[in-house]
Records
---
Amino acid sequence: MPDYLAVDLGAESGRVLRGALRDDLLTVTEVHRFVNRPVALPEGLHWDALALFADLSDGIAAAVAGGSEPVAGVGIDAWGNDFGLLDRAGHLIGNPWHYRDRRTTRSTAVVAARVGAQALYRTTGTPPLPINTASQLVAMEGSPQLDVAERLAMLPDLFGYWLTGDLATEQTIASTSQLLDVTSRTWATGVIDRLGIPRRLFAGGVVPAGTKVGPLLAHPSVPLWTVAGHDTAAAVAAVPATGDGFGYISSGTWSLVGLEIDAPVLTDEARLAGFSNEAGVDGTIRFLRNGTGLWLLQRCRAAWGDPPYADLVDEAAAAPGFRSLVDPDDPAFVAPRDMPARLAAACRASGQPTPQGRGAVVRCVLDSLACKHRWTLERAEALAGRRVDTVHVVGGGAANPLLCQLTADLTGRPVLAGPVEATAVGNLLVQARADGRLGTLRDLRAVVARSLPPRRFEPAGGARHDDAYARFLALLDAGETI
Ligand code: LRH
């Protein structure tokens, strides 16, 4: 039985993982891990696409050479929104921008003004966010790079193009652009025209997850498959749910909280609450909200000299709960530096005690994330008209027992935590299925539940959590930062 390789690119690190599917059990081993170091140039913040490509290529070469079984496929997933532009010779023009670069602060208003906020949402299902590809392209207006650009490649597709020489644009990653029609899953040419973005950039069309792209140039016996190129879509595909009544939190740098539904919710309420209808595998819709997640903890940890996460979580568990709360989506927390000081300033500004010491700061972050998880889950349920009985937490946050317990306590639903490697697992299983080895999405999830059984956290309930949540709601009302 052959193995598959997942290239999984995250904002902090990238990995190449090997997946072996034997008797409907998946085992995943990490082959290669590398740092992802954004580069700040005078003009702004970029990804180092060449370093990422060199690292992922090294990982693939090591995996193909090692291992007892042949490799039957490679798939690439990455964060959403970002892209490279190719010239008419197919060469990359400039360095891909980082979605955190500040050049897009005014773009969302421009995008909405040109298309109309309602019409834009009804067509694309995406609310205005500065990180959207649409916002980024509008911010590039007048750039000579756009004059010579012939094609746009979302980042996982760009790396796939470099691996094979063939550019395939995959649906789930394209749906993070705010330029894909949510209903037809083809490029929204009307929106593209109104935004003044050259239509030729989108000439190639869009293919679903599980499409064979072509053989790798460096390893001709190994094909590249499109997987769910958007990491969140790959993670949602790997939620080990056994029924339909579940909500999910893909918990990493971001907290993506939402539901899987069959048809998009395109109401004004959903738009104003900031919900996206992103494409999932098999025509599903990921109705979710992009919220700030463990980014707050990652940046605190960096400010403290990178102590182990486990130490920080232990210290937070020992600190008193719900003393001070912040809205994780407060724009004050977007920039990476001085996070503990920014959190303290937000607590002071809202008349709460400033957290003293690492444990108290981390506790403030985790309590606040759990409150925002509840807020988002309840909004998703109300907007989609559906109540969930279980919340699956997948991704890095599933390894944080305090965050999982607090999320169970606040939402009042059992939390099923794991797999931590959900993005890679989704990536691998989409390939195995495209290769004819699995059936429906439900079958795929059953493999995950059997191979990597989730850990269960029961909600504790109690007035303490409701009081804390009432204070959190008051904070949101005062800040209006949703
Ligand atoms: C999570 C994620 C998220 C957003 C953001 C930029 O890693 O993909 O869904 O698109 O990164």
---
Amino acid sequence: MQVMHEDIDKILFTEDDLRARVSEMGHQITADHQGESLLVVSVLRGAAIFMADLVRNITLPLEMDYMAISSYGNGVKSSGIVRILKDLSSSVEGRHVLIAEDILDSGLTLSYLMRNLESRNPASIEVATLLRKKTRAQADIDCRYVGFECPDEFIVGYGLDYAERYRNLPYIGVLKKSVYC
Ligand code: PRP
Ligand code: MN
Ligand code: MG
């Protein structure tokens, strides 16, 4: 395994943990959707790496599309305002949509996205999130596929950033407080 980056306090999920769990999620999604084709929607930028690994473990016909939404900017807290920075290229109407997200925190991003996509008349809409923080605020979001529950700490790596950095770490770890305090 790679040496831990100096800005990381501790590793929560190693490269091996991630590979094993993402593979399980892909196989579960495949088993649950026999005979269907999927429109897999990744939420840029954080979910790009998860999406890339997830789809390689799904053996169904599928299309990949991307939407860019941002609520955090460069801060460590959600701004509370969700903005669409890039819309989908494909039509959602009549499709089985699977949203691939890296992390469900306050739930603001996903609840906005699901409302937005539901208004475009998909055949179905489901969520696969790699990580979910256990907080009361997002209790009402229905995630069919969850990779790991994670602690309420500021985490980075495997797509997750702080001020656009650390997305390329192959593991997920807790960022040292000294980096952002
Ligand atoms: C992060 C993360 C999720 C969202 C989760 O995205 O990738 O999309 O926040 O937080 P929430 O449940 O509180 O909405 P961010 O807005 O930082 O954009 P990014 O994906 O480009 O990093
Ligand atoms: Mn994101
Ligand atoms: Mg971010």
